[in-house]
Structures
1.
Amino acid sequence: MLVSSSSSSSSSKGGGSNNYDYSFKILLVGDSGVGKSSLLVTFISNFVHHLSPTIGVDFKIKMVTIGGKRLKLTIWDTAGQERFGTLTSSYYRGAHGIILVYDVTRRETFTSLSEIWAKEVELYSTNPECIKILVGNKVDRDGERAVTREEGMALAQYRKCSFLECSAKTRANVHQCFKDLILKILEVPSLLEKGSTAVKKQILQQKPVHKAPENNGCCSQ
Ligand SMILES: Nc1nc2c(ncn2[C@@H]2O[C@H](COP(=O)(O)OP(=O)(O)O)[C@@H](O)[C@H]2O)c(=O)[nH]1
Ligand SMILES: [Mg+2]
């Protein structure tokens, strides 16, 4: 059962978000255009959006109950700086979970995950036991597929992370991606410790690295 409510970063200081067991920082990583922002928007909201190219949001807060725990998820998205091939170390700092996204119709986005993003994650993540999930997005465009499901599974196995294919457009498997990741985080005692009260304030006080333009709480709404 996944019960949720959400708010954008701009309203995250409002009431109602103090009642939780753990606070987790989740990141979206991958090439520009793979659908990171769309996945975030789809997960945060409960209805189908018209998807359009997004400029990045900084982060979104979502309250969920998963595995019987009340969780405050701070989900960070890039503001488009992934186009330059690198994010900064503070984007990765303190992450409990990382969603590595590629586009199943663009092979180069799959290659980038191995050659760029997985290396950055290894270099910069400060939680050695941080959970990762590999996600192939845009499966609704199956006719244009350039990366097979088997290849995705093989890379996930090699990187020791779980794997799902999904579509931000049809919403297929999107909630499942986040849920699988979070259930795995909940199994790791060191991550729970880092997501508990002592660290809550620290995470909330962290400033987004790349401040998004004003009033863009969510670009495709
Ligand atoms: N067909 C299809 N298009 C998608 C999907 N997810 C994202 N898109 C489109 O892909 C483009 C890039 O998406 P965006 O979320 O901005 O990617 P980002 O740069 O990784 O944040 C946009 O035009 C989206 O509408 C999907 O699952 N299926
Ligand atoms: Mg984006």
2.
Amino acid sequence: MPIRNSILDEVQYQVSRYLSQHGEALACSCQRCQDDVVALAASQLPTRYSTSFQGHFLIGVELQSKQVQLDILQAILTAIETVNRSPRHDPNRGVCL
Ligand SMILES: [Zn+2]
């Protein structure tokens, strides 16, 4: 099994879930901007690597705790604000694909 960063998996999941419910939160919905939100949010959180299915599962349980979920949501909201202020897609195209 490859080394996985469980936080990244969780952030990816939470960002897509959040944006499916609050699509207007992100000024641009292109893949680049969504990826930037995931990358920014994940880099604010402590990385949790796992090398086995068991480790991945145990970290997954830990990630479901209320405090960790709040930390993840806060990081995602901060990342959305950052991307909205300065989207990194090509400004001449307005919205990138
Ligand atoms: Zn964009």
